[in-house]
């Protein structure tokens, strides 16, 4: 049986990869994928804890996270398509009209 | 009549309402007309306020309404007088039966404070009411003629009626608060009336000066009222908490004001003395005494009927009335009484001397009024209340006559007030001239004319009651009065007219008729208090209120004063006649007396420097303070705080703007840094 620590470590690695992805990539779609990665790393940690504690709370929360993530992707992609139509680009650094 | 006495002030108030409504209607109509034909109305509305061309038809209408209202008040007052005379004079000594005190409703009631709205009708207030409504009616009628060319006579009569209402409140009120209501009311109305010709240069300033100076005095009256409210006790020792005259001036209650006292610098001061002193401050404001007399001469900028009403017959007499009404308080404090006498005498002398140096026909009379008020105040200070009241009445009549006469001169002489341009007007204006002579006879105390009796009663009282110095000084004042009146009569009515450009003409009947009526009253009004056992009507009448014995007549004093006065009048008259003959009086040229009197005369011309002194001591520092607060404190500190706050917010906004780059990734980075910090905080805690 793999120890909970290993799962948490993997989850942390995945999360960090996601954060770095969001921070360094300019393509919105890739940033989206990185966000998904972060969400899933959190799910992984939740399930690992759930198993360690032999309780189902973490798994239930995971389902919520998946549902919210799906909704987020639906909204996010719709926004992305609109932005692309208006700007003809998926580069976030070109979309800075809300500058103060 | 007691049931109808409330009509006396209500009728002029009704006049105010009617004339206001009529005036508003006129305004509506003229606006509607102006809409219909443009340009037609252009001729009106411009030009000098009081010598526009042609008669204003509204003057007669609103003037008559106003006059009738005051006239009806006079009739009611006379009826009340007759009713009071019908009451039994007195049952026992010192007890007064001839009065009624009607309370209509409770005006204010908070906690301990209860102020009734009611009238006290007794010998003193009825006498004042007779003067106010009687002379007031004549002045109203005169104003119909005087204001006939004015642009807004309706407004004028509204103010004039309102003034009468306020003055009646002042003399009829049965408590200090009612008196104060009228006191402030006449102040307001004098402000409105003095500044009536507000498009000219001087009147607005004069009205402000009158108002502000009077406020200083009003402060004294208010403090006195508060002190009476908090300190007065009933004979059984409980607090009175009342401002009703009859309760406050009850003997036992007034004495309670003496129980409070304090030692200061070795002298004992009682509450009664302090209250009397604060009342005196109010009196110096309203009755134009030193040090607050400076407003009255400037107030001559108002229309002349106003000068006659305010500055002879009503408002300025309020102070004397107040002192006579509250004389039990003054009598508790001999030192304040001496102060009152001193102020009266000083005012009488200084104002009379200033009158010598004036060229404006009305300003001579204005200073003369101040001076005569000084006589009255001095009389009150000496305890000669009847004499003061007597002089107040006769002076109210003959000074109104003189003011109206000067108004007639001004009106008929192209609105020119400079006596140096006049001369020889007796031929052009006979009615004005003869009535003016009668008024002058009253003022200088020509034998058997009203002023002779009343002024001599004051001077006689001074010699009778060991105020020898006061008596002498008042004689000097009387001599000065005669001199400047001789000077004025000569400059205005005798010799040749010096400014030939002005076409002088006699005034209309509206104006001469009241002059003649007042002249008749001037000749006759001495009878109200002739000396002699059976004649002391006024003394007998007022005796229950002031408890004073009849003044004795001193033939020698009267003879000396009269001879000195007439000699002085003749000196003034012939001196200026001579000067006119030798062409020594020219417009814009200084007076003859300046030639001989030199710098001293220059001081008189400058009114002893009172205005300059107040300017230097009060106005300038006040302006400096105002400019400190306005230019430094407000701009630098207040604006600094307000603008500084805004600046700070703006600055932080500009700083934070740089973070709002619009780059999603930089926001994300901040987010991550935030998370790391928060997590780090919890982890390392």
Automatic annotation (TrEMBL), chain A:
Pfam families: Oxidored_q2. It comes from Herpetosiphon gulosus. It comes from the Bacteria. Its EC number is 7.1.1.-. It is an enzyme of class 7 (translocase). NDH-1 is composed of 14 different subunits. Subunits NuoA, H, J, K, L, M, N constitute the membrane sector of the complex. It catalyses: a quinone + NADH + 5 H(+)(in) = a quinol + NAD(+) + 4 H(+)(out). The chain crosses the membrane at residues 6-24, 61-81. NDH-1 shuttles electrons from NADH, via FMN and iron-sulfur (Fe-S) centers, to quinones in the respiratory chain. The immediate electron acceptor for the enzyme in this species is believed to be ubiquinone. Couples the redox reaction to proton translocation (for every two electrons transferred, four hydrogen ions are translocated across the cytoplasmic membrane), and thus conserves the redox energy in a proton gradient. This is NADH-quinone oxidoreductase subunit K. It is a multi-pass membrane protein. NCBIfam families: PRK05715.1-2, PRK05715.1-3, PRK05715.1-5. Keywords: Cell membrane, Membrane, NAD, Quinone, Translocase, Transmembrane, Transmembrane helix, Transport, Ubiquinone. Belongs to the complex I subunit 4L family. It is found in: Cell membrane; Membrane.
From TrEMBL, chain B:
Keywords: Membrane, Transmembrane, Transmembrane helix. Pfam families: Proton_antipo_M, Proton_antipo_N. Residues 35-54 have a biased composition (Basic and acidic residues). The keyword Membrane applies. The chain crosses the membrane at residues 6-24, 63-82, 124-144, 156-173, 179-198, 210-232, 263-283, 304-324, 336-357, 364-386, 392-413, 433-453, 473-494, 515-533, 553-576, 664-684. InterPro entries: NADHpl_OxRdtase_5_subgr, ND/Mrp_TM, NU5C-like, Proton_antipo_N. It is found in: Endomembrane system; Membrane. Residues 107-157 form the NADH-Ubiquinone oxidoreductase (complex I) chain 5 N-terminal domain. Residues 174-481 form the NADH:quinone oxidoreductase/Mrp antiporter transmembrane domain. It is a multi-pass membrane protein. It comes from the Bacteria. Residues 35-56 are annotated as: Disordered. This is NADH-quinone oxidoreductase subunit L.
């Amino acid at each position: 049986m793999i120890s909970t620590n290993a799962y948490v470590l993997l989850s942390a690695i995945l999360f960090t990869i996601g954060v770095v992805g969001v921070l360094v990539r300019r393509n919105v779609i890739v940033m989206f994928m990185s966000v998904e990665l972060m969400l899933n790393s959190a799910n992984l940690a939740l399930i690992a804890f759930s198993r360690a504690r032999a309780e189902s709370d973490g798994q239930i929360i995971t389902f919520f996270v998946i549902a919210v993530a799906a909704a987020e992707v639906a909204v996010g992609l719709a926004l992305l398509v609109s932005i692309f139509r208006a700007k003809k680009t998926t580069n976030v650094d070109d979309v800075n009209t809300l500058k103060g | 009549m007691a049931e109808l006495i409330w009509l006396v002030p209500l009728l002029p108030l009704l006049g105010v309402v009617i004339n206001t409504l009529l005036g508003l209607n006129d305004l509506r109509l003229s606006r509607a007309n102006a809409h219909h034909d443009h340009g037609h109305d252009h001729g009106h509305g411009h030009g000098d306020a009081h010598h526009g061309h042609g008669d204003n038809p509204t003057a007669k209408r609103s003037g008559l309404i106003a006059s009738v209202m005051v006239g009806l008040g006079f009739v009611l007052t006379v009826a009340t007088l007759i009713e009071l005379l019908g009451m039994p004079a007195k049952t026992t000594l010192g007890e007064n039966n001839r009065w009624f005190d009607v309370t209509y409703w409770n005006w204010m009631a908070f906690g301990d404070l209860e102020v009734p709205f009611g009238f006290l009708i007794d010998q003193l207030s009825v006498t004042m009411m007779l003067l106010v409504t009687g002379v007031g009616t004549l002045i109203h009628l005169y104003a119909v003629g005087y204001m006939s060319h004015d642009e807004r006579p309706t407004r004028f009569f509204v103010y004039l009626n309102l003034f009468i209402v306020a003055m009646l409140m002042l003399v009829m009120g049965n408590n200090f608060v009612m008196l104060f209501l009228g006191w402030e009311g006449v102040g307001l109305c004098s402000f409105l009336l003095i500044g009536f010709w507000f498009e000219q240069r001087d009147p607005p300033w004069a009205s402000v000066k009158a108002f502000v100076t009077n406020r200083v005095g009003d402060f004294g009256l208010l403090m006195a009222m508060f002190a009476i409210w908090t300190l007065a006790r009933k004979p059984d020792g409980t607090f009175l908490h009342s401002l009703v005259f009859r309760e406050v001036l009850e003997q036992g209650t007034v004495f309670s004001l003496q129980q409070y006292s304090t030692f200061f610098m070795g002298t004992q001061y009682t509450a009664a003395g302090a209250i009397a002193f604060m009342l005196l401050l109010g009196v110096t404001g309203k009755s134009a005494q030193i040090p607050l007399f400076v407003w009255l001469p400037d107030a001559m900028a108002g229309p002349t009927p106003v000068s006659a009403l305010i500055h002879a017959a009503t408002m300025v007499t309020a102070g004397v009335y107040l002192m006579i009404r509250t004389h039990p308080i003054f009598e508790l404090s001999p030192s304040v009484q001496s102060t009152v006498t001193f102020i009266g005498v000083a005012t009488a002398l200084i104002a009379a001397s200033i009158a010598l140096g004036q060229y404006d026909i009305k300003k001579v009379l204005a200073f003369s009024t101040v001076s005569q008020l000084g006589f009255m105040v001095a009389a009150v200070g000496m305890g000669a209340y009847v004499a003061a009241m007597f002089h107040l009445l006769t002076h109210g009549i003959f000074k109104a006559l003189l003011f109206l006469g000067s108004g007639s001169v001004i009106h008929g002489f192209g609105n020119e007030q400079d006596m140096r341009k006049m001369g020889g007007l007796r031929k052009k204006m006979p009615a004005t001239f003869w009535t003016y002579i009668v008024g002058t006879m009253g003022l200088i105390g020509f034998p058997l004319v009203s002023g002779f009796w009343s002024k001599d009663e004051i001077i006689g009282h001074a010699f009778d009651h060991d105020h020898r110095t006061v008596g002498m000084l008042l004689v000097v004042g009387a001599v000065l009065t005669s001199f400047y009146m001789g000077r004025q009569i000569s400059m205005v009515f005798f010799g040749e007219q010096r400014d030939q450009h002005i076409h002088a003409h006699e005034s209309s009947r509206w104006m001469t008729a009241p002059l003649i009526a007042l002249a008749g009253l001037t000749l006759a009004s001495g009878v109200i208090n002739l000396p002699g056992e059976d004649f002391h009507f006024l003394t007998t009448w007022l005796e229950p209120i002031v408890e004073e014995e009849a003044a004795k007549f001193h033939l020698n004093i009267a003879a000396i004063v009269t001879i000195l006065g007439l000699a002085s009048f003749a000196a003034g008259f012939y001196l200026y006649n001579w000067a006119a003959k030798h062409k020594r009086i020219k417009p814009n040229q200084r007076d003859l007396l300046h030639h001989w009197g030199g710098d001293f005369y220059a001081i008189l011309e400058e009114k002893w420097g009172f205005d300059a002194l107040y300017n230097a001591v009060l106005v300038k520092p006040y302006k400096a303070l105002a400019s400190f607060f306005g230019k430094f404190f407000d701009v630098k500190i207040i604006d600094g705080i307000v603008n500084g706050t805004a600046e700070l917010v703006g600055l932080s906004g500009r700083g934070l703007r740089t973070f709002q780059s619009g780059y999603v990734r930089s926001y994300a980075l901040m987010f991550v840094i935030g998370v790391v910090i928060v997590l780090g905080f919890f982890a390392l805690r």
